[in-house]
Amino acid sequence: MDDVSVSDGINELLSNGGFETGSFSPSWTKSTPNGVCGIFTTGAEIDTSSCRSGSYCFSDGCGAKSDQISQSFMVTSGKTYFISFWLKQTGVGLHTYVTILLS
Length: 103
Hints:
Layout: E1 2-7, E2 29-31, E3 44-47, E4 57-60, E5 68-70, E6 82-86
Antiparallel strand pairs: 1-6, 2-5, 3-4
């Protein structure tokens, strides 16, 4: 995944949406709510291959125990926001799932 954006049409609300710092911190928090991935597959990490733009992107090769990343930002009730991201599926899995949770 790359080029993650949440904007109000004028201002970008996310930091490091392209993962160009080369790490999750300080903007993104990584969690493993479904358990640790395993010893033969790679969980969520900052990657340098298959990126849409720049040198870095997010990759999660975990499959059934997909990791989560999150970031907090301020919004105004009643205002419209635009969410976008680029996602590339690699491998031979049957499905790719993305869940966006706003709370």
